[in-house]
Every structure is written in C-alpha cells, then in structure tokens.
Amino acid sequence: MPSDLPLRCAACAARDMALCDGLDETALAALHQIGRRRRLRAGQAFGWFGDRASSCANLISGVLKVSRVEADGGIQIVGLLYPGDFVGTLFADRSADTIAALSEADLCVYPRRALEEMLVRHPAAGRLLLRRTLATLGEVRRWMPMLARARADAQVAALLLDMARRCAADGEDMFRLPLSRGAMAEALGLVVETVSRHMTAFQQDGLIALSGLRGVRLIDRTRLAIIAG
Description:
The chain is α+β, with helices and mostly antiparallel strands. The chain folds into 2 domains: 7-141, Jelly Rolls (Sandwich); 146-228, Arc Repressor Mutant, subunit A (Orthogonal Bundle), CATH 1.10.10. 41% of the residues lie in helices and 23% in strands. The protein has 9 helices and 11 strands. The strands form 3 sheets. A 4-stranded antiparallel β-sheet has the order 1-8-3-6. A 4-stranded antiparallel β-sheet has the order 2-7-4-5. Strand 10 and strand 11 (215-218) form a beta hairpin. Helix 7 (181-188) packs across helix 8 (192-204). The radius of gyration is 18 Å and the shape is globular. The chain starts with 6 loop residues before the first helix and ends with a helix. It comes from Sphingomonas endophytica. Keywords: DNA-binding, Transcription, Transcription regulation. This is HTH crp-type domain-containing protein.
C-alpha cells in the first residue's frame, strides 16, 4: 500500500472484501483521493429512490437495506448489504432504490462522476468493480425468496443462515449478529416479538446458542435449513 495513504485505509475491516482488494498501488491511491468516510445512524438514508445518484460507496461496517417502490405504492425491502458490498449504481443519473441503514453503518463514499472517471483511467479497477457489483447483485437476489416464505419461523431461520454466511469466519459457526432483533424484524416485515419468540424457540430446540445481546452459534444448520425451506 502506498505510504501516503492514511492508517484508516490500512486498518479497514472490509478492505479484503471491498473494491480496494486487488487494486494496484496507483489505482488505490487514485481511489483514496476521491473517497471520504461517512457514518450513518440506524434509519438514516444513504440515497432515496428517484433522487439524483451523486454518490457510491463501499460498505465498511453495519448493514444497509435496499427498498423499492412497488406498483401499488407500497415499499418492499429487496435486499440487504453487508460489509464489503458496493453501494449505489454507476452510470445512472437517478437512484433506482432507496438505501438506508438498518444499523449504525460506516462507509467509504465516492462522488459518482469522479469514480466513473477514475475507472476510465484505470481499466483494471473497472473490471474489478464490475465483478464486485455483480456479486453484490447476486447477494441481493437471494433476499426475495427469503421474503416469499409464508411462515415467520422460516423467514427468521433463513435470515440467520444468511447472516452466518456473510458474517461468520470461514468454517466457523459462531458469529455476532449484525442486526438487533428490532432491525431483523424490520428487514423481514415482522414485529420484534415474533423474531424474539422464534429465536428463543430455536435455542430451546437446540438449533442455536445465544450469547449476550448479539452472539449466536449455529448448532444445527441442517435443521435450520429445513425450517427455512
């Protein structure tokens, strides 16, 4: 890494997952020049549907929800973004979705036009971003089948498995929930009491073990997957 980059870049928890991973020193320095750190409170929006798409970002920590306006005017959460995911859309003047924080979130934000120009100057970075964007899109597409589940216990089980896949270290069953019970309920369109009831039931049935406010260990992934459908 170039010596003139700040320590926050070297210590970034998402660097190995985000756009920065794989960039050469020249491209990384160019990316750093246009980037700035931004924090979002839970509930605060990164961008609103239909607004001018002025910024993109790498998500460093926290979880964001991607919402879409349906034909009947209703709001539907269509995906979750986790650390390392790319936020926003390039080469589009208007935001196609509303993106807001489900938890406190930390982002590295880039002006969209400046990022587009940087990618033209550094084609390898553009190819890397394309792969990253397609990967993020693939993750978002996992969300719709999860919401389509009719039973609340299936939704909660599916969300637990999804968070474990994204947040647990490779080969580990223990991880820290990135969302509170309330945020999980918001993401699934449930009430917090329903989420808490099913989490407690999963623990009593020996499927998971809870530790403190956010610690969870998946004991029986197979049975959780059966419940999730």
